[in-house]
Write a structure and sequence with these properties.
The complex is a heterodimer of chains A (320) and B (160).
Chain A (H helix, E strand, L loop, with lengths): L6 E3 L4 H11 L3 E4 L5 H6 L7 E4 L9 E4 L2 E5 L4 H6 L1 H6 L2 H6 L5 H6 L2 H7 L6 H7 L3 E6 L2 E6 H4 E3 L2 E2 L6 E8 L5 E9 L6 E11 L5 E9 L6 E2 L1 H7 L6 H8 L16 H22 L22 H4 L8
Parallel strand pairs in A: 1-3, 2-3
Antiparallel strand pairs in A: 4-5, 5-10, 6-7, 6-10, 8-9, 11-12, 12-13, 13-14
Chain B lengths: L1 E8 L3 H8 L2 H7 L7 E2 L4 E10 L2 E15 L3 E10 L2 E13 L12 E12 L1 H37 L1
Antiparallel strand pairs in B: 1-7, 2-3, 3-4, 4-5, 5-6, 6-7
The chains are: A alpha+beta (320), B alpha+beta (160).
Chain lengths: 320, 160
């Protein structure tokens, strides 16, 4: 429970942090909220020589409107994202997701940038980021790059953030008219991580046609992914309970599910379908389309009004 | 936990067998290994460094080769002990000629199927359990990726 010795550095500016990181390369780790890195260090599963604490940098926890996007500073905590009026109005999927992360202490300390850069296979944000087609901005001493969410997650705990890089901003598009979103999660009862998490974004016409759909899945495989087989079956189609059900059977298609003492690979695959179904049904309901879904989780709510977290975000039915 | 799967290696079966049972070759494929020091028949001492992104750990351990039936199959056991805990894996590697390949020798491919049991203990197991299986698969993949790269490099060198 005591980490190996390391050198602690607390730069005052982002530039200084980037210079330190550039100098130490892969011997250094960035510390933000500390809720992913510190547990690993205490178990000595990670023993970086240098820990560069960016948690005290000012001005990197903003949430602000920027054209038709919302820009979120990497140091915004989960609690800030969950409580943001701007996001609830313009991009409700993100606060709905943030409100379901871990417990209150994790939400008060953990940051959106830290969670995404760590890329735990069961973290919640990745599903939402993928469904939103967000952009991630990464900086190093050699400049700034913008990475689309679809390319960001590489493998287990691996992203496009390389040694020397700091993830500084997440940009999400503002919700369009006819759009509905939902995040449905199967909480691991001990860790609060997502055994399976599904983030759906749909754009539906008034007569119930699914104009576009994006489905991000987390917890299932070694990295979060877009369930493109499900999207393909639903895009451009008239929404119906049967169609959604048969599409969601493909929620883990082409993915080798994780397996642990709590949930086998087979069970995860089955739950991926169940939670994809719940997320899509809830997102459709919020877009004003009600399908004859027996397992629908969302109560109808007027489209385009921010949805209270408690109303429909949590999967109803029993927690297993 | 049970680990099974397969990997394709770019060489003929005899060559793959010879390589995978050669301590000098294995030293280049096992993550973080510098050298396999002989320690009795079919046994070698080795130090390993496993790393997956932020996770990393150093282990002192041994590699044991047994039941050698060239060029078809052999058993391999790898065990290690270190600050993060201990790990132990043992399984059979079976080599198949890949029939889907083109008949020319230069593109010879061999499919290696592995089937074994692994145990992990200590702090790694207590907290890392959520990701241990995924991590073990990733390490196996790193092993076969390194083996494939070595075999390609050898083939290239032989051509010159």
């Amino acid at each position: 429970m005591i980490p190996s010795s390391f050198e602690y550095q607390a730069p005052k500016t982002l530039d200084e942090a980037l210079r330190l990181l550039g100098r130490h390369g892969d011997e250094a780790k960035i510390l933000a909220g500390g809720h992913s890195l510190l547990p690993l260090m205490k178990l000595r599963l990670a023993s970086p020589r240098y820990v560069i604490d960016i948690g005290h940098l000012r001005g990197l926890d903003y949430i602000r409107e920027d054209g038709d996007h919302i820009a979120i500073g990497a140091l915004a905590t989960h609690a800030q994202v969950a409580a943001s009026e701007l996001l609830r109005e313009k991009c409700p999927l993100l606060p709905e997701t943030a409100a379901q992360i871990g417990d209150m202490q994790v939400r008060n300390r953990g940051t959106i940038g830290g969670s995404l850069a760590h890329a735990d296979p069961a973290a919640d944000y990745p599903a939402a980021i993928l469904a939103l087609d967000a952009e991630l901005i990464v900086q190093s001493t050699s400049g700034k790059r913008t990475i689309p969410a679809a390319e960001f997650f590489v493998d287990l705990l691996s992203t496009q953030v390389r040694p020397g890089d700091i993830l500084t901003e997440i940009r999400v598009p503002a919700q369009r008219s006819g759009e509905g979103t939902a995040y449905c999660k199967f909480h691991q009862p001990a860790s609060g991580f997502a055994t399976v998490g599904a983030a759906a974004r749909v754009i539906a016409s008034k007569d119930g046609k699914i104009e576009d759909i994006a489905l991000g899945m987390t917890g299932v495989g070694s990295k979060a992914y877009r369930a493109s087989a499900v999207e393909k079956m639903l895009r451009g189609k008239q929404a119906s309970g049967e169609l959604i059900e048969s599409a969601c059977a493909k929620a883990a298609q082409g993915v080798e599910p994780l397996s642990d003492i709590f949930a086998s690979a087979e069970y995860r695959r089955a739950m991926a379908s169940v939670f994809a179904h719940r997320a899509i049904s809830a997102a459709l309901a919020r877009a004003g389309v009600h399908v004859n879904a027996k397992s629908a989780t969302a109560k109808p709510s007027p489209a385009k009004t921010p949805v209270k977290k408690s109303a429909a975000s949590k999967p109803k039915g029993k927690r297993k | 936990m049970r680990l099974e799967g397969s990997a394709l290696l770019p060489a003929a079966r005899e060559k793959v067998y010879e390589s995978l049972t050669d301590p000098a070759f294995l030293a280049k494929c096992l993550p973080g290994a510098q050298e396999l020091t002989p320690d009795g028949p079919g046994r070698y001492k080795v130090s390993l460094k496993m790393a997956i992104a932020a996770f990393s750990g150093k282990f002192q351990g041994a590699v044991h080769l047994a039941d050698e039936r060239p060029p078809e199959s052999f058993r391999m056991a790898v065990e290690g002990r270190g600050a993060p805990g201990f790990m132990k894996g043992e399984g059979t590697l079976t080599l198949f000629e890949n029939h889907r390949q083109a008949p020319n020798q230069q593109s010879a491919q061999t499919e290696v199927r592995y089937d074994g049991e692994a145990q992990v203990g200590g702090v790694v197991a207590s907290v890392g359990s959520r990701m241990i299986e995924a991590a073990a698969k990733k390490i196996i993949q790193q092993f076969f990726d390194a083996a494939a790269a070595q075999l390609s490099a050898l083939a290239k060198a032989a051509k010159k």
